[in-house]
Design goal:
three-stranded parallel β-sheet, mainly alpha, 3 strands
């Protein structure tokens, strides 16, 4: 890869849309596709690392529970049962009544609202990867513009470095 990188600098101009993490470079945040393809130990390590960088509660998408038995799944799944594609409010109400865990569901265009899900007894509502997918869609669009037009032609929303850096405490990261 180092040799290839040097060769890319030999002639012309190398245009770098800049990937900032594994997800923007190739796949999702740890460079793996969805579907329990990340080993459980790597998942746990990533969750522990994220937890050190924030001071709010953390939830994680643990797929189907990362276990072959009910006991193994129970070791992983403790904050709730996520049913991302379930939009039928009557079915959700029935599931809420029978589940020993709080039910989590997703919302989005054409799906029941947070208020409708709350009325059905759902205890957590998310948008899954929708916000991340939107961010990557903008990244892809702007990278395409840079590569085809040689500049960014679309004004895009952005956050400045100072604001983003304010999310992290340098002391916490050094100690962690």
């Amino acid at each position: 890869m180092a040799k290839l990188l040097r060769e890319l600098h030999a002639d012309g101009t190398l245009v770098l849309p800049n990937a900032w993490d594994a997800a923007s470079a190739a796949a999702w945040s740890l460079g793996r596709p969805d579907g329990e393809l990340l080993p459980r130990a790597d998942l746990v390590a990533a969750i522990e690392w994220m937890a050190t960088a924030i001071d709010v509660p953390l939830t994680a998408d643990v797929e189907a529970g990362y276990g072959g038995t009910e006991e193994e799944v129970a070791e992983t799944v403790t904050d709730c049962l996520f049913v991302p594609g379930l939009a039928d409010l009557a079915v959700l109400e029935s599931l809420v009544a029978r589940s020993p865990l709080p039910i989590s569901a997703s919302t989005g265009p054409g799906r029941p609202t947070v208020a409708q899900r709350r009325a059905a007894g759902v205890r957590r509502v998310s948008v899954g990867p929708a916000l991340t997918q939107a961010a990557y869609a903008v990244t892809r669009q702007l990278a395409g513009e840079l590569l085809s037009a040689g500049q960014l032609t679309t004004e895009s929303p952005g956050l400045d470095d100072a604001w983003l850096n304010s999310l992290f405490s340098a002391a916490d990261l050094v100690e962690g």
